[in-house]
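Input (structure):
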């Protein structure tokens, strides 16, 4: 199989360029996963559209990172675990909570634990969460709208997690200290 390129704005297909420019603006860089995704304008455009909705929703950035990191671990996406470990720490999530998620455990913060548990259940049960899964999330102070919003975050992370598994982009130097392998 021919390796997947990690595109820049200039090397990407014309129809991928606006999405890469949007990510450059959001992150100050184009993550290697996005460069690999740009091979498919449809895929990169889907991610950028969903990314905007997720980060413009009702969850705080640290809460979003809890879901994204949990999903990366459950999906065994090494690139995404490293990336979201770094972003979670930048958002002020404790190193202990980041390590707990990376080790397959729940974070100590009750709201983070509820988010992580629901995200894990959604992936492991392929969306067939139980009433108990939902009630645990709602009992932590969230509502039905946020329960549904978690689906959008899981969808966004699934795009990156699956793409990373298929394309195997190199991990950026800035994230190498967060390299992860399933224990």
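Output (sequence):
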């Amino acid at each position: 199989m021919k390796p997947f390129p990690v595109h820049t704005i200039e090397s990407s297909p014309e129809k991928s360029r606006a999405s890469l420019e949007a990510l450059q603006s959001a992150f100050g860089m184009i993550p290697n996963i996005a460069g690999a995704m740009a091979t498919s304008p449809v895929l990169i455009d889907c991610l950028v559209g969903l990314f905007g909705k997720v980060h413009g929703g009702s969850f705080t950035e640290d809460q979003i990172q809890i879901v994204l990191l949990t999903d990366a671990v459950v999906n065994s996406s090494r690139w995404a675990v490293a990336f979201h470990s770094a972003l979670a720490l930048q958002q002020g999530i404790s190193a202990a909570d980041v390590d707990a998620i990376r080790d397959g455990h729940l974070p100590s913060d009750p709201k983070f634990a509820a988010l992580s548990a629901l995200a894990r259940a959604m992936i492991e049960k392929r969306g067939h969460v139980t009433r108990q899964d939902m009630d645990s999330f709602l009992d932590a102070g969230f509502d039905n709208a946020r329960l549904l919003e978690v689906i959008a975050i899981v969808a966004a992370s699934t795009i990156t997690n699956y793409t990373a598994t298929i394309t195997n982009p190199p991990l950026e130097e800035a994230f190498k200290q967060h390299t992860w392998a399933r224990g």
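Notes: The CA atoms of residues 57 and 149 lie 8 Å apart. The longest helix spans residues 144-167.
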